[in-house]
Design a protein that fits this description.
Elements: H1 5-27, E1 30-35, H2 43-58, E2 63-68, H3 79-85, E3 90-91, H4 118-125, H5 128-135, E4 142-157, E5 171-174, H6 178-186, E6 190-193, H7 196-205, E7 210-213, H8 215-220, E8 229-245, H9 246-250, H10 254-289, E9 293-296, H11 299-309, H12 311-315, H13 317-320, H14 322-332
Parallel strand pairs: 1-2, 1-3, 5-6, 5-7, 8-9
Antiparallel strand pairs: 3-8, 4-7, 4-8
Helix pairs in contact: 2-10
The structure holds (2S)-2-hydroxybutanedioic acid.
Length: about 350
């Protein structure tokens, strides 16, 4: 029996296709889009670029990481949704940004004066509390892989902020967080949640009067150019969770995933090593710019800020969860009644 020529040609084409398809797929680079909202010259920006470099080397070029910084792809109000939908594969949102997903406990990181130092913080993020929090993301289709530091926040405005009374009547840009909202109200200010990408413009145009952020974010967005005064208050912490789309990550070939895990561990060490120095350099640069006066709270003033702000811990218990707050106190040894 002879087969018609057309059938044979079709069968041959099918054989070629099925034989070469997996190989050609296997040779395609795997692209990871890593989107974030800050400048490249910040602890998070540098950490993302370090991960890009290490991922490329460790996978022999099989993985290419595209870093999209400065809200160039997504802003903080839509980036987590974009990750869930697979439009990007990797993000590092600030810990304040997970509550809308339904994981309210992350807001504990926003509580004023809950951490005294990076060392305190590590006791939480490197321990069971930090691990359990990341696990809560899995049911949302997200894997939490690491914690990256930024640092401790300064406050800025066009008036000098030394005492809680100085906040009266000020409209202050915050991240969208109920805890930060309560913090600003406790100081007598009016909180004004805005995306990070809108903060500079809002300060410049006078929509808001002041803001808070670690110095690295303030400086790299030029906020110091539109704020006459910066107060080093270290009243709160800002850090990140590095997250990936779970389906994408689980679907990677296992040796690639291991290489990427290794790259991320090293990038995490790097990001957390440079964070403190980056913030110190940023505050020095703000000082040297001559655009903003930098003031450090005296011990008495710091006590007055704490007195005004520590009640926010209790007030936020129903919202954040009393247990997570207790767990953090236990890990750090902090006793808010004795501060
Ligand atoms: C902010 O919105 O102020 C920060 O979360 C930005 C960031 O990602 O550091």
């Amino acid at each position: 029996m002879t087969l018609p020529l057309r059938t044979i040609a079709l069968a041959a084409a099918w054989a070629v296709l099925t034989a070469s398809f997996p190989a050609s797929i296997a040779n395609q680079p795997i692209i990871i889009k890593f989107s974030h909202v800050v400048a490249d010259e910040t602890p998070k920006g540098k950490g993302a670029l370090k991960f890009k470099e290490l991922a490329q080397v460790r996978t022999g070029g099989r993985v290419q990481v595209e870093v999209h910084s400065n809200s160039s792809r997504f802003t903080d109000s839509n980036e987590i949704r974009a990750l869930q939908l697979g439009a990007v594969q990797m993000l590092a949102p600030s810990l304040s940004k997970f509550a809308p997903l339904g994981v309210k406990e992350f807001q504990a990181f926003d509580l004023p004066y809950i951490f005294d130092s990076y060392a305190d913080l590590r006791k939480v993020t490197d321990g069971p509390v930090g691990r359990d929090l990341l696990e809560k993301l899995e049911s949302k289709g997200i894997l939490g892989l690491a914690y990256w530091d930024n640092g401790f926040k300064v406050m800025s405005a066009n008036r000098l902020l030394r005492n809680p009374a100085d906040f009266q009547g000020l409209r202050v840009r915050i991240q969208s967080s109920k805890v930060l909202d309560a913090q600003m109200r406790a100081l007598g200010a009016t909180p004004y949640p805005l995306d990070f990408s809108q903060a500079y413009g809002a300060l410049k145009s006078g929509i808001v009067d002041g803001t808070e952020n670690p110095p690295s974010n303030l400086y790299t967005q030029n906020m110091h150019e539109v704020q006459k005064h910066v107060t080093i208050s270290n009243h709160g912490y800002l850090g990140y969770a590095v997250i990936v789309n779970k389906k994408f990550w689980d679907g990677l070939p296992s040796e690639i995933r291991q290489q990427l895990d290794g790259a991320l561990r090293e990038a995490t060490r790097y990001a957390n090593d440079i964070a403190k120095r980056e913030n110190e350099q940023a505050i020095a640069a703000v000082r040297n710019s001559g655009k903003s006066q930098v003031y450090t709270l005296s011990e008495d003033e710091r006590r007055a800020w704490k007195k005004a702000l520590l009640p926010v811990h209790r007030e936020m218990e129903p919202l954040v969860g009393a247990q997570i707050i207790q767990d953090i106190y236990k890990a750090t040894g902090l006793d808010p009644n004795r501060m």
